[in-house]
Amino acid sequence: MLDDIIIGQYIEKDSIIHNLDPRTKILVIMFFIMTIFLLGTFKGYFALAILILITILLSKIKPGYMIKSIKPLLFIILFTFFIHLFMTRGGRILWEWKFLRIEEEGLNLGLFMALRLIFLVSYTSLLTLTTSPLQLTDGIERLLNPFKKIGVPAHELAMMMTIALRFIPTLLEETKKIMKAQQARGADFESGNLIKKAKSLIPLLVPLFVSAFRRADELALAMESRCYRGGENRTRMNVLAFARRDYWALSISLFYLLGVGILF
Amino acid sequence: MLIEVSDLEHQYNTDLAPDSYAIKEIDFSIKEGEFIGLIGHTGSGKSTLVQSLNGLISPTGGQVEVSGLDLTETDNLKEIHTKVGLVFQYPEHQLFEETVFKDVAFGPDNLGLEQDEIKKRVKNALEVVNLDYNQFKERSPFRLSGGQQRRVAIAGVLAMKPEILILDEPTAGLDPQMRKELIAAIVDLQEKFSLTIILISHRMEEIAQLSDRVFVLDNGKLSLTGSPIEVFSNYEYLTEIGLGVPEITEVLHRIKAKGLDVNTDVFRVDQAKEEILKVMRG
Predict the structure, then answer these.
(1) What pLDDT, on the 0 to 100 scale, is given for residue A252?
(2) pTM to 2 decimals?
(3) Does the beta-carbon distance from B94 to A202 stay under 8 Å?
(4) Does B211 touch chain A (CB under 8 A)?
């Protein structure tokens, strides 16, 4: 079950998408997210699906892997779908059984919400799959730089994000280890009703939190002992620079998204 | 035979890396009451092997039988967990309860035992690891020193009353005094309760002095087995795979290489001294 979580994972490959400037990717995703929330027709969503598919193809990442990234959210997606399906009223009545009733609007909205979530998750996980955490933070930091004047701690925010991303796999590994240790002492994480299951998580969560705090402490010390003091006066070895392909990628995606937004 | 392993293999990722095995072609059996030392370089598959022995990971091929129970059948797993106690590396990282008593009682509690029996077991287990029951039972495990925490965690496994105890580098990160105490407690366990013990360690001295038999894992395969004397006579091979031999053995080997015909089959300093003196006196 834990092996399915791939948030924050980076798969090294040599592809057009991998070689883009992280800022390009972040900007495209921001516009993508805006478009997704403004769109309201299936035609438009179809156009977005095409964009996602093209990006996946260009990134050389196996489609199976993308499906894997949606799997952990399947419950939330289905939950949203069914809530909208049964709760939203309007339009023709499609199906009725005792107190349950599905109306046209509900079906539409449910599908929209589910698709929205799937698109969001798959496109954003493409970002982390094709961009190394280091590049990603670099990109975020540079994008936030203009806002420094109004007091946005760009460097600190970026650093926090890198650390969070970096520790996801570590904590998952830790979770597996503690689970095994408690199972060896007869703990049972699978059977029982919901309350029993929740209770059985205590022997897992307490050591996990303890170790997360310990790790945070150790990391802070290690950073300080290497004289880390935020982004002040810090220079970079590799300075990000837009290449021609970035301008192309940026303008093509923006025109496409804009076109989709206007037409549909 | 208490443990029978035949042609055991385990792969972690069958999709992405179908040709890489964590362990492969493992065959051995262990008698009741034996003390086995398991050595191997980092990543040689030691942890995978011991986890297969108590059913935490199910083998992708081969057979594991523990006192007649087949480990590949999932119905047996709970029984296996109680028969085979596994102390992981840095076991203090699994502590979670408010008091030492509750934490040690977690295992027996999961077995569904009576309160009296649980109390008895906790008391015994704490005594074995040299912690005073009355002094420690109400204290928070998180406020103890590192060495005490580790002993509490080990007591948590002992309270399950396993027939086989597997210890994965139990002395890593302990100071010399605590290491000595812990080793003494382990020896005690084997002598008093005739437990079968499998010890993983990178300290060749511990392995040489404690084990009846030594297993050497190299790249997922069992490359050497035998008594400590037999295994540690392969001085060159062990150094080549990054393991080495006990310091005292190395000293004796070097003395022998210089032309003094000493017996290289001892693992304790006092014995080595006797051997050298014997040869010197002629």
Answers:
(1) 92
(2) 0.75
(3) no
(4) no
Contact B86 A188 (CB under 8 A): no
CA distance A222 to chain B (A): 19
Order the strands of the B196-200 sheet from edge to edge. Answer: B84-87, B164-168, B196-200, B35-40, B213-218, B221-226
Q: What is the DSSP letter of A263?
A: H
Assigned token pair, A37:
């929330």
Report the distance separating Cα A242 and Cα A27, nearest Å. Answer: 13
Across chain B, how many H-helices and E-strands are there? 12, 10
Q: CA A258, CA B137: separation in Å to the nearest integer?
A: 67
Segment A65-124, tens digit of pLDDT? 888 778 888 889 999 998 888 888 877 787 888 778 888 888 888 998 999 999 998 888
Structure tokens at B13: 């990722």
Number of residues in chain B: 282
A181–B93 CB contact, under 8 Å: yes
The residue type of B166 is: I
Q: What is the ipTM of this complex?
A: 0.84
Say yes or no for a CB contact (<8 Å) between B51 and A211: no
Q: In this predicted model, what pLDDT tens digit does every residue of A154-170 receive, in sequence order? A: 888 888 888 887 788 88
Enumerate residues 150 to 169 of chain B having a beta carbon within 8 A of any beta carbon in chain A: 156-157, 160
The answer to whether residue B54 neighbours chain A at the CB level (below 8 Å) is yes
Q: Which residue of A has its CA nearest to B50?
A: A184
In angstroms, how far is the first alpha carbon of chain B from the final one?
45
Which domains does chain B show, CATH number per domain?
3-228 (3.40.50.300)
B93 closest CB neighbour out of A184, A185, A207: A207
